Amino acid sequence: MDWLFLFEVVLSGLGSGALLALTGIAFVLIYKATKVINLAVGEMLMLGAYFFFGLTISLMLPIWLAVILTLVGGGILGGVFERVLIRPMLGESPISVFMVTVGLSSVLIGFVEFIWGGDPRTLPSFLPSKPIFIGDAYVSPKIAVCFAIASILIAVFLLVFRTWRGGVALRATATDQGAALSCGINVPAVFSVSWIVAGMAAAGSGILIGSIGGISPNMGVFGLSVLVAVIVGGLDSIAGALVAGLAIGVVEALVGTYMGGEYKLLVTFSILVVALMIRPYGLFGTVEIERL
Question: What residues form the membrane-spanning segments (predicted)?
Answer without folding.
Answer: 6-29, 36-57, 63-85, 97-118, 138-161, 221-251, 263-282
